[in-house]
Amino acid sequence: MELGIGMFGDLTYNEKQKKFQPAGERLKEMVEQVKLADEAGLDSFVLGEHHRPDYAVSSTEIVLSALSSVTKKIKLASGVTVLSSADPVKVFQDYVTLDLLSDGRAEIIAGRGSFTESFPLFGYNLQDYNELFEEKLDLLLKLNREETVSWKGKFRPPLEQQTVYPRPERQLPVWIAVGGTPESVLRTARLGLPIMFAIIGGRPVQFKPLIEFYKDEYKKHGHDPEKMQVRVHSHTFVADSADDLLDNYFPGYAAQMDRIGSSRGWMPYTKRQFIDGLSPEGALYMGDAAEVTDKILKTIEIFGLTRFIAHIDVGGPTHKQLMKTIELFGTKVVPEIRKALT
Question: How far apart are the C-alpha atoms of 54 and 171, rounded to whole Å?
């Protein structure tokens, strides 16, 4: 069982100045934060890709490479690489380079992307959303398996007996991130790839049928159950108390949910929704260390997880807040989970 943290690089919003913090400042803070996570003994760090004004990270490969120079053991993963709007050859080259720099700590978590800003930015049609992912995942996996590649598809020029450099010292771990689409779950199981479920709303237990579906199909397609890996990625924050969350964390969290929701037709995010998410059955892994520990342990037991990723920077908490939640997660939550699982 591995435990880690995830970030999207949310920018802190200054209410007085009515603007986001500079991206460069946030990136430098992130280096300190992940360095602390590594020192605290966390297993992995997952970094999302976005192309919006409220996030600092559009190039996960470059940021993860910077982090590789200040960390020693923590695994460094994208979360997600929006593969549908990327070039699989370049993705492979970048993550091989990261893997070599970090002494074998790189991982790719690929997804279709719930944020679609990258499609017009890189000249792709959203109508090809699923077909793009299928084709590009096929090429990425082929590059990862074979040294000399011949390949032909619809959306990219073909490769004829091409070798991509630099060469890796191992096959890169490639995960697939899914929301709640059975087709995505089936594809991942059929290919025998590890899966990451993003659970950010409702009741986590509602995902149990999908996770069981993945496990059943994984075995039906002849893959070794001993190699099966299931990860959950959920909004998490460790604070001194629920009151601390409501007073100091909720306003920024709600503002970010509303920024995202404004383009998706969501109703304004309410304090009642937040409090409901904090309940033992809710999808927010937030509260004091004991509350977060209990909820993660329950999720591990229900789903039979091999990894849990605590997504901690939703809404742009301050650097001080994030350093504190990483410290509490690493020193209070993770040791108790590990003790309970031994």
Answer: 34
> Which amino acid makes up residue 120?
P
What is residue 242's predicted lDDT score, i.e. its pLDDT?
A: 83
Could you give the count of Cα atoms lying within 13 Å of 95 in the half-sphere of its Cβ? 30
What share of the chain has pLDDT > 70, as a percent? 100
How far is the CA of 118 from the CAs of 49, 105, 150, 196, 279, in angstroms?
9, 26, 27, 21, 35
Helix axes 250-261, 271-278, angle to 10 degrees: 110
What is the secondary structure of 66-111 as a DSSP string?
HHHTT-SS-EEEES-EEGGGS-HHHHHHHHHHHHHHTTS-EEEEEE
Q: Do 77 and 172 touch, CB atoms closer than 8 A? A: no
Overall pTM > 0.85: yes
Q: Give the other-Cβ count within 10 Å of 184's Cβ.
A: 20
Q: Which residue type does 316 have?
A: G
Beta carbons within 8 Å of 28's beta carbon, 6+ residues apart: none
- What are the backbone dihedrals phi and psi of residue 6, each rounded to the nearest 5 degrees, phi first? -135, 155
